[in-house]
Amino acid sequence: MAADTFLAGLRVLAIEDDHVCRKVLERQLKYCNYNATMVTNAQTALDMLREMKDGNQFDLVISNVAMPNMDGFKLIELISLEMDLPVITKALAQTHFSHFHAWHSSDRAENSNHENLYY
Fold first, then answer.
1. Per its UniProt record, what Gene3D superfamilies does this chain match (predicted)?
2. CA 90/CA 53 separation, integer angstroms
3. Looking at the whole model, is its pTM more than 0.85?
4. Are 76 and 67 in contact (CB under 8 A)?
5. What is the CATH number of the domain that holds 68?
6. Which of 26, 67, 71, 104 is least crowded, fewest Cβ atoms below 10 Å from its Cβ?
């Protein structure tokens, strides 16, 4: 199915703290004709979702995992407790992350009780 027709108009909230990764993700979402709202941290995303909770403004949340202050796993936990909204988390392997951090994130994803998609 062509990118210009597959789920066109999907309302996506994307959380990414890295400027370059955020721009790449934004371009991909626009290429797919999704209505993307980009934010730089989990708290801003959570505040937006709470404000729009009754209005159901988003169909999907895409979140980075490794972020300062509140990581993607905590965001998923709070979203799943407060609202019915699918979340996709993305963990990019970057050279400045240690092997321990990558292992720790993987372990948290596998032991999570949430039915979300991790890639």
1. 3.40.50.2300
2. 23
3. no
4. no
5. 3.40.50.2300
6. 104
